[in-house]
Amino acid sequence: MYKRIMVAVDGSEIAQQALAEAINIANTYNAALCIVHCIGSENEVDKNRGNEILEKAKSDTNVLSVETRLLNAEAEYGLNGIADAIAAAVYDWKADLIVVGTSNRRGLERFYVGSVAEQLVAKVDSSILLVRSK
Fold first, then answer.
1. Cα–Cα distance, 5 to 7 (Å, whole number)
2. CA distance 78 to 56
3. Burial letters 21-45, b for 16+ CB under 10 A, else e
């Protein structure tokens, strides 16, 4: 069913849960897996931290075909938002499923901060699996 699965990670516990789901689905369907992490600028500290997050995520996988991508929302895609960069990566890589964790923000915090996962729902045509914290 799914052949190209992308999962977005940020080092959080919910992202680890999303990664575990993506790995399970990739193994079930013998699908390729692409793990992405998005930064907002060319800051070396952010790039190093992003690469550490990706390497940790990759080391947790047991999928046959796995790659990682460090996305830079501003430099690579000319965009300002993390969701825009991930949506562009989904399109570029031709993912047929995107897996993302979603927090349980409520009320004013959700209104003001929003959610990358929520924004992705509006931006991509691929199927999306939202993983909530346990």
1. 7
2. 27
3. bbbebbeeeebbbbbbbbbbeeeee
Is residue 92 within 8 Å of 84, Cβ to Cβ?
A: no
Confidence of residue 106 (pLDDT cuts 50, 70, 90): low
Q: What is the pLDDT of residues 48-103, one digit of tens each?
A: 999 999 999 999 898 889 999 999 877 666 556 888 899 999 999 999 999 998 87
| CATH superfamily, with its number, for domain 4-132 | HUPs (3.40.50.620)
DSSP-derived letter for residue 41 is: S
Identify the H or E element spanning 18: helix 13-29
| Structure tokens given for 8 | 């977005």
Integer-rounded Cα Rg, in Å, for the chain is 14
- Torsion 44-60-18-29 (CA) sign: positive
Query: Mind listing the pLDDT tens digit for each residue in 31-61?
Result: 999 999 998 877 899 999 999 999 999 998 9
Q: Is the dihedral of CA 128, 24, 14, 35 positive or negative?
A: negative
For residue 48, the Cα-to-chain-centroid distance in whole angstroms is 17
Residue located via tokens 């047929």: 96
